[in-house]
Amino acid sequence: MFRKVGKGLLVLPGSPSTLLVPTENGYYVIDPGSKANRVMEIQKAGKVRGVLLTHMHSDHVLAADGLPSEEGVYAPFLEACGVESEKLRRAMIFGGSAPEGLVYHVRAVPVKVDRTFRLPFKVEGVEAVPLPGHTYGQVGFLTESGVLYAADSFFGDKLLENAVIPYYMDYQLALETLKFLRENARSYRKIIPSHGPIVEGKRAEELLDLNLEALERVKDLVMNSLDRPRSAESITYKILRDKGRDPTPSSIILSTVTVKSVLSYLYQEGKVDVKLSEEGLLWWWA
Question: How much is the pTM?
Answer without folding.
Answer: 0.96
